[in-house]
Design goal:
With 314 residues, the protein is α/β, with parallel strands linked by helices. The protein contains 10 helices and 14 strands. The structure holds adenosine-5'-triphosphate (ATP). One of its GO terms (molecular function) is ATP hydrolysis activity.
Length: 314
């Protein structure tokens, strides 16, 4: 199927000379949820801004729905929704009017039934006559989502959709994002909460200093870069590792009471290694009284990736 968004060689240099996007290559498939992960200042918002026509780029191409955005910006932009990080609007505006108004901005006729459906799905219907300034932070965020959905976009950008909201609201948001995907909306979200990417995304991209470090299916990324860590506590300290353990990525703690394994590839190899090691310990007459096994999460992988690339680019 034709990708919904194709970004090629995209570069953005801000006025002060800072390269916020550096030859970015990214293809988004229709119907997927794509999570863009990156530390502060990595270029996530700039990338979204470039696709949404808010940031003027210095080079590269952006094709959405098969159209070159630099040549045919308007019709493609009408199919894109953006939920920005912050509300930049007239805070005295009424919720309902604010949301409904955005259809007109994209040349769509008014559709009160559709607006009602969106407001109800976000639990905003009862608040429709309230001024935006009277809402809580989480509710304001829902208003931003409602606004972005009002013109029925096929491609939706959510810039940090759950930053600063409480856990309950975050879970509600995840449900809502899942429901949008059910409707066929392609979703690109940026997040600091790796748990969010782990929960929601089909694919994950990692960006740092304007460069995309890696893009992969979430499951494939965890399988390829995942690690197993295990700490085996010994009953009595040993002076050195028996030579039969030489093939395993194990270290012995300084006091000789703990074996630390760090290996595997996220595919189950690590657990099999740990099982084999415990068997070998028994054979060697070394008693142990505890095993603590930890499979790496997307968070561990992300931290690893960003730290390594820091070493490379510093
Ligand atoms: N208008 C601007 N003028 C100059 N520099 C800018 C401008 N906007 C962003 N930058 C810089 O560009 C870099 C990328 O910023 P961007 O906001 O895209 O990052 P981000 O990944 O969205 O960060 P965060 O997670 O903190 O929101 C940062 O170093 C930022 O300071």
């Amino acid at each position: 199927m034709e990708p919904i968004l194709e970004i090629d060689g995209l570069t953005k240099i801000y006025a002060g000379g800072l390269k916020a996007l550096d030859d970015v290559q990214l293809t988004i498939k229709r119907g997927e949820i794509f999570a863009l992960l990156g530390p502060n200042g990595a270029g996530k918002t700039t990338l979204i801004g470039a696709v949404c026509g808010l940031v003027r780029t210095n080079g590269g191409t952006i094709k959405a729905f098969g159209q070159d955005l630099t040549k045919n910006w308007r019709s493609a932009r009408a199919k894109i929704g953006l939920v920005p990080q912050e509300l930049a609007t007239d805070m005295f505006e009424e919720v309902g009017r604010f949301v409904a108004y955005s259809r007109g901005l994209f040349g769509l006729p008014s559709d009160p039934a559709r607006i009602e459906e969106i407001l109800r799905s976000l639990s905003l219907w009862d608040k429709r006559k309230e001024q935006i300034r009277a809402l809580s932070g989480g509710m304001k965020r829902r208003v931003l989502i409602a606004k972005a959905l009002a013109h029925e976009p096929d491609l939706l950008f959510l810039d940090e959709p759950t930053a600063g909201v409480d856990v309950e609201l975050r879970r509600d948001m995840w449900k809502l994002i899942g429901a949008m995907r059910e409707r066929g909306v392609t979703i690109i979200l940026t997040t600091h909460y790796i748990e969010e990417a782990e929960e929601m995304a089909d694919r994950v991209g990692v960006i740092r200093q304007g460069k995309i470090l890696m893009v992969d299916d979430k499951a494939a990324m965890m399988a390829r870069l995942g690690r197993t860590e295990a700490v085996i506590s010994l009953v009595r300290p040993i002076a050195e590792l028996p030579s039969s353990f030489a093939d395993y990525p194990i270290t012995l703690s300084d006091d000789g009471t703990e074996l630390c394994y760090r290996g595997g590839d996220g595919s189950g190899k690590g657990k099999a290694d740990v099982a084999a090691i415990t068997k070998a310990l028994t054979l060697a007459g070394i008693d142990y009284d505890g095993i603590d096994v930890h499979e790496s999460s997307l968070e561990d992988i992300f931290v690893d990736l960003v730290e390594h690339s820091e070493g490379e680019t510093a």
